[in-house]
């Protein structure tokens, strides 16, 4: 594609994304599926542009509002981003040539607006803090409470593109062999800093077309997500429930830790997500997983009381920790969403806790940065359920490979600024054994 054709496609894609009804990655997947003629390189370039615009959305809107544009078009967002990123105005104007496959020529009004942006930078000190940090205004007090003086650093880290992390499938290979195989495919990679199963890849490449991915030797998974599967400490022969399994990211990690021995039930309320797990499980050579679609008043679930050694609740959440990958998440999230999610998380945690055997563990995880979805949920749960207690990371064998500072905490808390991962929270809660319960009752 010519640069002008890429720009035209970007404008078209952005106009679909900016209704913010659906996640941008889902919109982009559909867009490219309907336009198979757009090749891999063009697709990556168009997506990179759109993601960068989404990362700077509030600042762009702010600048256009200074030019009296209250409802910017996707054309102005794309062109404004280019000018504010330092591309020469004449160059941008030339791309709007009106030629075949190119965007229509800029109108006089558009030219005037864009000329007003020449020589400006995307960020200026006079912008409101929420705009500068690209955060929803209503979320600022919660983030200030959570991060205090670290907020600027955290917010900036959340604006950087995420690394490409993969988990090596130890059912099929080892990290050393996977690194060597990637090198043979001319893919630069290194062991990831925290996860014993992780590899971090240099640059943006399409790893899904590599031989190693297709053979199931590796799986795409953020390092933080790998650590949650690690902390679940699922062991060979155990009965494990992945209560919010989705497309099976953490199920796969736990199946590997269990060496394919024992039994995992992967549950979810979404049939299409559970369905998406099938291909991944098969590719990974995992065969100890049963899938179960949860339904209203689920009778099967009622029969599973106290039957599991491990119950992982990877709860639906605001996803604030993944905004490096999903920058549009910040533009779609509302206070009502957060309020509804908190209720949902509380209910899921309570229901899932009934499945844990005495002496078994309930693992609560989110990819949220907000205390309201994390510690606060755990604290409320522990208050209402005194037969569970929180294990500190230093009490969990699998956590002993983590840095000392991390292990001295009652839970795992990862942020992009602190560890270069997505934002994650994980707390491990152990249910009393029968003996502990009896001795407590006789005291
Ligand atoms: C954070 S995602 C899970 C991601 C998945 N564990 C992984 O590692 O790929 C949360 C999941 O919770 C599911 N969910 C939402 N409400 C639920 C409920 N009431 N019970 C069980 N799962 C639910 C969603 O469909 C979604 O797949």
From TrEMBL:
<dbReference type="InterPro" id="IPR029063">
    <property type="entry name" value="SAM-dependent_MTases_sf"/>
</dbReference>
<feature type="binding site">
    <location>
        <position position="314"/>
    </location>
    <ligand>
        <name>S-adenosyl-L-methionine</name>
    </ligand>
</feature>
<keyword id="KW-0694">RNA-binding</keyword>
<dbReference type="InterPro" id="IPR018314">
    <property type="entry name" value="RsmB/NOL1/NOP2-like_CS"/>
</dbReference>
<feature type="domain" description="SAM-dependent MTase RsmB/NOP-type">
    <location>
        <begin position="154"/>
        <end position="432"/>
    </location>
</feature>
<dbReference type="InterPro" id="IPR023267">
    <property type="entry name" value="RCMT"/>
</dbReference>
<dbReference type="Pfam" id="PF22458">
    <property type="entry name" value="RsmF-B_ferredox"/>
</dbReference>
<dbReference type="InterPro" id="IPR001678">
    <property type="entry name" value="MeTrfase_RsmB-F_NOP2_dom"/>
</dbReference>
<dbReference type="Pfam" id="PF01189">
    <property type="entry name" value="Methyltr_RsmB-F"/>
</dbReference>
<feature type="active site" description="Nucleophile">
    <location>
        <position position="367"/>
    </location>
</feature>
<keyword id="KW-0949">S-adenosyl-L-methionine</keyword>
<dbReference type="GO" id="GO:0001510">
    <property type="term" value="P:RNA methylation"/>
</dbReference>
<protein>
    <submittedName>
        <fullName>Ribosomal RNA small subunit methyltransferase B</fullName>
        <ecNumber>2.1.1.176</ecNumber>
    </submittedName>
</protein>
<dbReference type="GO" id="GO:0003723">
    <property type="term" value="F:RNA binding"/>
</dbReference>
<keyword id="KW-0808">Transferase</keyword>
<dbReference type="InterPro" id="IPR049560">
    <property type="entry name" value="MeTrfase_RsmB-F_NOP2_cat"/>
</dbReference>
<feature type="binding site">
    <location>
        <position position="298"/>
    </location>
    <ligand>
        <name>S-adenosyl-L-methionine</name>
    </ligand>
</feature>
<feature type="binding site">
    <location>
        <position position="268"/>
    </location>
    <ligand>
        <name>S-adenosyl-L-methionine</name>
    </ligand>
</feature>
<dbReference type="InterPro" id="IPR054728">
    <property type="entry name" value="RsmB-like_ferredoxin"/>
</dbReference>
<keyword id="KW-0489">Methyltransferase</keyword>
<dbReference type="GO" id="GO:0008173">
    <property type="term" value="F:RNA methyltransferase activity"/>
</dbReference>
<comment type="similarity">
    <text>Belongs to the class I-like SAM-binding methyltransferase superfamily. RsmB/NOP family.</text>
</comment>
């Amino acid at each position: 594609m010519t640069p002008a054709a890429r720009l035209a496609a970007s404008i078209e894609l952005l106009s679909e994304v900016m209704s913010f009804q659906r996640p941008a990655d889902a919109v982009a997947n559909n867009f490219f599926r309907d336009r198979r003629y757009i090749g891999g390189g063009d697709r990556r370039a168009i997506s990179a542009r759109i993601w960068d615009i989404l990362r700077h959305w509030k600042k762009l809107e702010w600048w256009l509002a200074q030019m009296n544009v209250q409802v910017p078009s996707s054309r102005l967002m794309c062109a404004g981003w280019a000018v504010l990123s330092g591309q020469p105005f004449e160059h941008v104007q030339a791309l709007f040539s009106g030629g075949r496959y190119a965007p229509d020529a800029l109108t006089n009004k558009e030219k005037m607006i864009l000329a007003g942006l020449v020589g400006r930078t995307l960020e200026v000190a006079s912008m409101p803090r929420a705009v500068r940090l690209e955060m929803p205004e209503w979320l600022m007090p919660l983030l200030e409470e959570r991060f205090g003086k670290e907020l600027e650093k955290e917010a900036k880290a959340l604006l950087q593109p995420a690394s490409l992390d993969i988990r090596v499938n130890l059912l099929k290979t080892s990290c050393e062999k996977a690194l060597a195989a990637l090198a043979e495919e001319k893919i630069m990679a290194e062991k990831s800093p925290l996860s014993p199963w992780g590899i971090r890849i240099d640059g943006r490449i399409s790893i899904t077309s590599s031989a190693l991915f297709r053979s199931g030797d590796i799986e795409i998974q953020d390092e933080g997500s790998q650590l949650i599967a690690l902390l679940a400490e699922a062991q060979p022969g155990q009965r494990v429930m992945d209560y919010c399994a989705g497309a099976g990211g953490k199920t796969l990690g736990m199946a590997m830790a269990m060496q394919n021995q024992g039994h995992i039930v992967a549950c979810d309320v979404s049939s299409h997500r559970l369905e998406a797990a099938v291909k991944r499980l098969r590719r990974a050579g995992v065969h100890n997983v049963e899938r179960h679609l949860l339904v209203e008043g689920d009778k099967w679930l009622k029969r599973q009381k106290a039957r599991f050694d491990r119950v992982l609740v990877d709860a639906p959440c605001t996803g604030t920790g993944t905004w490096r990958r999903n920058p549009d998440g910040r533009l779609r999230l509302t206070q009502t969403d957060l309020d509804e999610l908190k209720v949902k998380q509380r209910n899921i945690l309570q229901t899932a806790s009934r499945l844990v055997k005495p002496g078994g563990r309930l693992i609560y995880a989110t990819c949220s940065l907000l205390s309201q979805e994390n510690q606060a949920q755990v604290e409320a749960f522990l208050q209402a359920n005194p037969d569970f207690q929180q294990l500190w990371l230093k009490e969990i064998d699998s956590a002993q490979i983590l840095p000392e500072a991390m292990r001295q905490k009652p839970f795992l808390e990862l942020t992009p600024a602190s560890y270069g991962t997505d934002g994650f929270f994980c707390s491990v809660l152990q249910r009393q054994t029968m003996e502990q319960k009896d001795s407590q009752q006789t005291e």
